[in-house]
Amino acid sequence: MPDSKERYIYSDNLNRRTDFPYLVLDVANGVPSKRNAGFHVMHWHDDLQFICALEGSLELQTLDLSISLASGEAVYINKDVVHRVQNADRCHYVSIIFPPYFLTFYPGSPACALVDRVTSEKDLDIVRLMSDSGWQDQVLAALKDLLAVKPDAHSALETYEVLVRLSEIWLLLCKNITIPLESRTSTSSLRVQKVLRYMEEHYSDPLTLEDLSRSASISKSECIRCFRDCLSTTPYRYLTEIRLSKAAQLLKETDLPIGSVSEKVGFQEMSHFGKCFKERTGFSPREYRKANPM
After folding, report:
1. Residues of the chain with pLDDT under 50
2. Which residues touch 104 (CB under 8 Å, ≥6 apart)?
3. Measured between alpha carbons, how far is 35 from 281 in angstroms, rounded to an integer?
4. Which pLDDT score, from 0 to 100, does residue 154 have?
């Protein structure tokens, strides 16, 4: 993970400011039970994550690879990994997000070194979990048991059970994972990283394909090819996703007029902004703000 990860969209744990920052997002047909920044675009967070496919299939994409998850499969995502879920319109999945310190037991414990070593390994971005009648079956069964625990009431017993089950899953992973010896970072992904950083810094400007390709010192056709290979989309579509994600954040967290929000995130016409926003979220900007009061 490059040092400039902060220039990608940071997806905040919606429970971060609670006394138990354990977040479970239930996502059905592309619609999450709670929406946070970066949901539809490449994003990162400093929490650990499991994604469990319950029905249908989905595609998980990082800057270097893309994998498909079928019903009953899951994936572990390390902290600081830039990623997104896509092609999940006919899928039901659950995302489990929690901070690494959940696994360390107490400050200064021997477990801290193990957690730090695994979570800081730059070539251990994801671990795919498929039924194989071995240790992965054990992890999948443990994840199923974990999802059955509902700590919404903040019961001491329920939160303790979550911590125990997470530790059980983590121990199984640590006993069985193999850290890659060589980096999988490709030339295309490095070029895409440069363009994404430029988008993040200049999304409010009237960007052209020439601007984007110049930011990575490549031709326009090469820019399009790299995005197609790494992200299965076009630079313009991805830029639109970033702008819509930023707009959603402004609608939730500020009282700026909708026209000002549209202009601030780089849309030249408010009508185009409204159309794109509704296509992506199912709400008009005004409806979205009403449904997500400050």
Report:
1. 1-6, 181-183
2. 111, 112, 115
3. 10
4. 58
Joined together, the tokens standing for residue 225 give: 């090819």
- DSSP string of 156-188? HHHHHHHHHHHHHHHHHHHHH----SS----HH
Cβ-based neighbours of 247, under 8 Å, separated by 6 or more = 261, 262, 265, 267, 273, 277, 285
To the question of pTM greater than 0.85 for the whole model, the response is no
- What are the pLDDT digits (tens) for 134-146? 899 999 999 999 9
**DSSP classification of residue 102:** G
Alpha helices in 152-269 (DSSP H): 156-176, 187-202, 209-215, 220-231, 235-253, 258-264
d(CA 264, CA 255): 13
Cα distances from 152 to residues 15, 36, 47, 149, in angstroms, run 11, 18, 19, 9
Contact indicator for 75, 46 with CB cutoff of 8 Å: no
∠ Cα 177 182 187 (to 5°): 125
CB 196 within 8 A of CB 230: no
Q: Phi and psi at residue 60, in whole multiples of 5°?
A: -105, 130
Measured between its terminal Cα atoms, the distance across the chain in Å is 33
Q: What is the set of domains in the chain, with CATH numbers? A: 3-176 (2.60.120.280), 187-291 (1.10.10.60)
Q: What is the pLDDT of residue 135?
A: 93
Q: What is the CA radius of gyration of the chain?
A: 20
Q: Are 277 and 284 in contact (CB under 8 A)?
A: yes
Token couple for 131? 């039924």
Backbone angles phi, psi at 223, to 5 degrees: -60, -45
Q: Do residues 93 and 32 make contact, with C-beta atoms less than 8 angstroms apart? A: no
pLDDT of residue 87: 76
- Give pLDDT, residue 6: 47
For residue 11, what are the CA distances in angstroms to 8, 47, 97, 222, 226?
9, 10, 11, 29, 24
